[in-house]
Design brief:
DNA damage, single chain, RecF/RecN/SMC_N, DNA repair protein RecN, 17 helices, ATP-binding, 556 residues, elongated, Rossmann fold, ATP binding, alpha/beta, six-stranded mixed beta sheet
């Protein structure tokens, strides 16, 4: 329920602070007084975008605040999900700076306009004279059925299942497309992988093979060099080993008379032993060197194979070939895994589709069940509003199971006639403005009983009606206000007289500016206001008497 609306520096409004009643609130005033400006200010705290920067004072920011009693509307979960502080009286504030930048707050916490709009939908429903266009939309028609059928929990379950089915189906489609492309390349990838796998690649093999190739190709030269080493160390007439042996003997003789050179003797002896060992090792290596033409051919063929594979796959070494081989293996494994995933997703989609169809069927049955009651009640309310021959026909049809929608499987068609003997037609084609307003009021009054809207605002929906019809419309609004807050902007005294609180919007002229203001009328002021609505600025006694009768008391 909207307890209070505060508007500062907006359009023709300098400062307004309005406290509303929990029942039927009436706003009246001459055309152009500023009623639409007040509604524009209210729309800003309901998440509408700022259309202009027309401020009362162009050097100050605009601030609009709404104080809402939300204690009975089960909004704690919403506040927790949005990380907002929950307060029984929640304050929504909108600020628009002089440069046009806008900020929104809920209980002093900044929020986005999207969050504000979602919250606003739970707080207020605005029904203007243009809202009759909603009657032609399937979304509104389905909302009517679902509200009366109390389908909100079922709609939420269906919506969740629909999104899950849609997301899973999209994933399946994308995976199938990718798998189809991969399958086209699979044979080629398999060939490449088999070729690399058969090559038995080793990351160190190329370096070792190239070294062996060098050894085999230069075997004669290597053998000749090694033999030269052996000749120099041992076989030469004056070999290194012979000379070292002779030198060692001479040093040992000297040591007998000079013990201090023992270390030199030891070092020379070590060198002699090392050279002999080196000679033996060279000999063993030399014995292992031989001309092996077959092995050389095998090494050259293996290297040619490795070089060819590297050139084919545009890499520089065997390690890169091995990495590419593993990449191919993973692709082939992924293809196999994708097939398993596709099979699982197909099963999931089938199961989700079955669950979705079951929920859609439940929605269809619940909607069908309430159609007779809706038609009967709407026709009854319209008869109360002097439309005795009106008839609303509601047709519900199911689409193909493969064409499920986010609202279910149903299409709905509201057809209406206000005249006797005329077949119902789409509402926008056969109803006048006044008839549409009454039809919308009847539907809204039905929805309001089941959807528990905190506040409903009727913005000049009395267009095209007057007299006894206006009285009936007023009675329906009054009944609505018994269980919810209702606000009505009206030019009809019959409707204005039903209000529990009556506010008058007016303009004040000064030497410098024109400003819009609003006051809550006292009982005496209400009589005068209604009389002026009946007969003009200077009402006579009859108009005053009629106004008093409308208010249910005698004029004083």
């Amino acid at each position: 329920m909207l307890n209070r609306l505060s508007i500062h520096n907006y359009a023709l409004i300098d400062s307004l602070d309005i406290h509303f009643d929990k029942g039927l609130n009436i706003l009246t005033g001459e055309t152009g007084a500023g009623k639409s400006i007040i509604m524009g200010g209210l729309s800003l705290i309901l998440g509408q975008r700022v259309e202009s920067r027309y401020f009362f004072n162009q050097h100050k920011k605009c601030i609009i605040e709404g104080y809402f009693d939300i204690s009975n509307y089960q909004l704690k979960t919403f506040f927790a999900e949005q990380d907002l502080d929950y307060e029984r009286e929640t304050i929504i504030r909108r600020e628009v700076s002089v440069d046009g930048k806008s900020r929104a707050f809920v209980n002093d916490t900044p929020v986005t306009l999207q969050v504000l709009k979602v919250l606003a939908e739970r707080l207020i429903d605005i029904h203007s004279q243009h809202a009759t266009l909603q009657l032609n939309t399937e979304a509104f028609q389905l909302l009517t059925l679902d509200s009366v059928a109390q389908n909100q929990p079922l709609r939420e379950r269906y919506a969740a299942a629909y999104q899950s089915h849609k997301a899973t189906s999209a994933r399946l489609s994308a995976l199938k497309t990718a798998a189809s492309r991969a399958q086209a390349e699979a044979d080629y990838h398999q060939f490449l992988y088999d070729e690399l796998a058969a090559a038995n690649l080793d990351a160190d093999e190329q370096e070792q093979m190239e070294a062996e190739q060098q050894r085999l190709e230069h075997a004669e030269e290597i053998k000749r060099n090694l033999l030269g080493v052996i000749f120099a160390l041992q076989d030469n007439e004056v070999s290194a080993i012979t000379l070292l042996k002779e030198a060692l003997q001479q040093l040992q003789q000297a040591e007998r008379y000079m013990p201090s050179i023992a270390a030199l003797v030891q070092r020379l002896q070590s060198s002699f032993i090392e050279v002999k060992d080196l000679n033996n090792e060279v000999g063993r290596v030399e014995q292992g060197i031989g001309l092996d033409e077959e092995r050389l051919v095998a090494v050259n063929e293996r290297l040619s194979q490795l070089y060819a594979l590297q050139q084919k796959h545009r890499v520089d070494n065997v390690a890169a070939l091995i990495a590419f081989r593993e990449e191919l293996r993973e692709k082939l494994e992924d293809l196999s895994a994708d097939e398993a995933t596709i099979n699982q997703l197909e099963a999931d989609v089938k199961q989700l589709k079955a669950e979705l169809l079951e929920l859609a069927e439940a929605l269809t049955e619940s909607r069908k069940a309430v159609i007779p009651a809706i038609q009967e009640e709407i026709d009854q309310v319209l008869r109360e509003m002097e439309m005795p021959h009106s008839r609303l026909d509601i047709a519900l049809r199911q689409v193909d199971p493969n064409e499920l929608r986010h609202t279910g499987r149903d299409t709905v068609d509201f057809r209406f006639t206000a005249n006797k003997g005329q077949e119902p037609q789409p509402v926008g084609k056969v109803a006048s403005g006044g008839e549409l307003s009454r039809l919308m009021l009847a539907i809204k009054s039905l929805i309001a009983k089941t959807s528990a809207l905190p506040t409903i605002i009727f913005d000049e929906i009395d267009t095209g009606i007057s007299g006894e019809v206006a009285l009936k419309v007023a009675d329906i609004m009054d009944r609505l206000a018994d269980h919810m807050q209702v606000m009505a902007i009206t030019h009809l005294p019959q409707i204005a007289a039903k209000g529990k609180a009556h506010f008058k919007v007016y303009k004040e002229e000064s030497a410098e500016k024109t400003a819009t203001n609003i006051i809550q009328l006292t009982p005496k002021e209400r009589v005068l206001e209604l009389a002026q609505m009946l007969s003009g600025v200077n009402p006579g006694a009859a108009a005053m008497q009629h106004a008093a009768e409308l208010l249910g008391r005698q004029a004083r």
